[in-house]
Fold this protein.
Amino acid sequence: MPDTLTPPTITPVQLDLTVNGRRQRVQADPGARLLDVLRDQMMLTGTKEGCGAGECGTCSVFVDGKLIKSCLMPAAKAQGVAIETVEGLAGMGDLTPVQKAFHKTGASQCGYCIPGMVMAATAALRDNPAADIEEIKERMGGNICRCTGYSKIFEAVEIARDVIAGRLPDTALDPEAVGNSFIGHNTRRMDAPSKVSGRLQYAGDMVMPGMLHLQVLRSPHAHATIVSIDTSEAEACPGVHCVLTCDDVPGKDGFGVFVHDQPVMARGKVRHVGEAVAAVAADSVRAAREAMALIRVEYEALPGLFDPEDALKPGAPVIHDYAADNVVKHIPVRKGDPDRGFAAADLILEDSFSTQQVEHAYLEPEAGIAYVDPDDVVVVISPSQNITHHRHMLSHIIAKPINKVRFIMSPVGGGFGGKEDMIYQGMLALAAMKTGRPVKLVFTREESFAASAKRHPSRTRYRMGLTKDGRITAIEFEMLSDGGAYGMSSEGVMRKAAILSCGPYEIENLKVDTRVVYTNNTPSGAFRTFGGMQAQFATESMMDMAAERLGMDPFEIRRVNMMRAGSRTHTQQTLTSAAIDRVLDAAEAASRWEAGVPNGRGATRGDLDGPGTRKPCTLGARFRAGGAGMVPTVKETS
Amino acid sequence: MLYCDTYLQPATLLEALRMLQAAPEGSRIVAGATDLLPWAREGRGGDVRVPQLIDVTRVEGFAGWRREGDRVRLNAGTVYQEFLEDDGLVRLLPNMPHCAAWFADDQIRRQATLIGNIVNASPAGDGFPPVLTLNAEIELARLEGDRVATRTVSVEEFVTGPGRTLMQPGEIATAVTCDAMEGYGGSFQKVGLRRSLVISAVCCAALVKTDASGRVFEDVRLALGGVGPRPVRLRDIEEMLRGREMTPELVAEASILPARHVASRSRVEYRRAVVQGFVEAAIEEALVALGAPRTHATEREAVHA
């Protein structure tokens, strides 16, 4: 990247190296990483950046035949070396057995970890073509996947190993025949070849001529009034094309999935650590960051709210003026007569449950490019999970008719709900409109953690009444969730938590309340199960405890209460079909469940530690293969 | 982000020392760079400008290792993966492969040097417990006039606190020397949430040798990491075990002692509990490495009961 702020003393490093069999000469920045040179100068974007700290493995490449993490290697070290990237594994249009096996088993889902994963699998099999599955797992331990749970990846590596060794025929890599129907057959993903070859471009891989780089100044405070923002020094920096604050928003500022309570950049005050306050677009990331450091923001700290219980107390600090009680949403569900239900119970159980904040940690950090096309259409390319809604919100924010706003959804390198919120696309659009240039923003992993929504931390108070034979007579369910600083998907999450609250059981009498409140914590939003997980943790725990107290088998108590065709749900919908009976049967068989009361079956259990159960994690597969002397049997060939 | 004005790759130690002497303030020696690059990020060093990086990985004589009498000399370029993959090192430094298996991952181990781990002096550094049991010394080179002078410091004394060592400005670490421990059983214990890429909350290394009968501890060496500002060699327990008959009761008794060495600023109770199990498991696994049968967890519980 051109770097206008480069001090005159800087000495570029001239690198002569071989990349995928071709000799290359590049001038590298002395502070650049090998990853930067591969991606930005050689356009080898199959090598991804997921964390920049050696933790994820999306950047794995071979250097002189040894797999390393290119985010941890200064580019200058590459003088004279031979590099092989994912693009170099097979010829154009061809795939290696490892890549074909990944295609076959469906090992690529979002695909962002996959080039690195293919490299790690390739390295493992090059280092030991006979590696068993434990050794493969150990050798691939430096690469993280968030979609697959690894099973399909390991399945692929074992198939590839056996094909390479000749133990399986090449046809083992072919797709399964599907006949006239895909149903009941393994079908290959159409996008897998683009992912296993590294050719699929995510937003962070895209470049446009004349593209500027955006960097975002974020709040160090959880709750503070913004007294002033002085951008003059930053504006004056060479290479800076614009500095943005909320004052640059031409239309009606505010976005959110349900309530539009979040400004594109902090307006008047900040509500959580990591909230965007200002942004700089410049010729290079470095120029933008150096200018950003010169923005002066004066804050006046406000008392913060960090516990959802505190948010409900009288006199609590108010985080959003429109919600004086700090409540984002309360979802009540009522059915039957809980008082009568509890009166009819032989046993009443009460307990409380809490779940914690969770980060999605998709391997692809947030990224996007925005530009204004010749017809004045503002275009935003990003891995948004909700582009139509984003488009509508952005048209209000930038005061343009909807036909002048376009969203292009780039491949989503993992979302899990975390990319439903429009937390950066507004800034990109404003920067493109202000500069007339394409503008790109790529979050760092740290930024992604600080700024993106999390799973709602929850606290649930539970009361369940049951008869002696295990029939639930009534439930009182009260959940309080920490919504963090902005509403985002909170309302929907609370709705889902309420709808699913009491599980797949027919409860005649229930009183359910889910509430989500504002605090000054990182905002909570959508995350796989969308509130269901927090509720089911409480409900299923209650079912197990009830089984213990009543001396029943845990499967049995669930069968007594499960929904059937004709059951009425918690929200009083009549079901025409229900599958929980089959789910319970399948789970019981698969787990080799020993029927009985959980707490009354003695010390030994046949269904624990048995076949098919997960053994404790150990290391040293490479030693064990060598016997008691613990001498590694496999040596690297260099 | 890391900003650097000049990246230097000296070919000789003399050249490297001269570069270091002449380097502007804030310049750094770099080997594997696996600590440097994660440090230059938000939440740690942030955006940092290092005027000069002096990369010593191409310095003549920094690659490889050799045996010197009853010691092993590991030159500065020795990376963690070598402890797993070099037969000679596996034989001579029997607890290092176990440490290496738990250290980061295969890819990082190909770049990360042992000497960098020591100089970095993190209280969680995985390399410390095993090198302490190996009576390791670190060799430091400096310029004296126009020639290279060296001094040697035991690693135990070298680390004075978190990130603090006895290294002087102008010095470059050139080698680590260790006792050659052929015939010992080695082991390494570490608390981790997954197999790879885990930073130790506590770690423990052991080296054990039995007498000809296989029933008496001829020698035991133990050390802990992650339990305070510096790694700790457990000489009191070594003393207690040396020459005694190997019984599960003795090992269980010895394993209670090291809890008092825990001087961390956080999770003290947790670490004390872990340390107790670690010392016992480290000794047991070192014996397993010598060919002893593995004790089942329930037998161990019975001894403690």
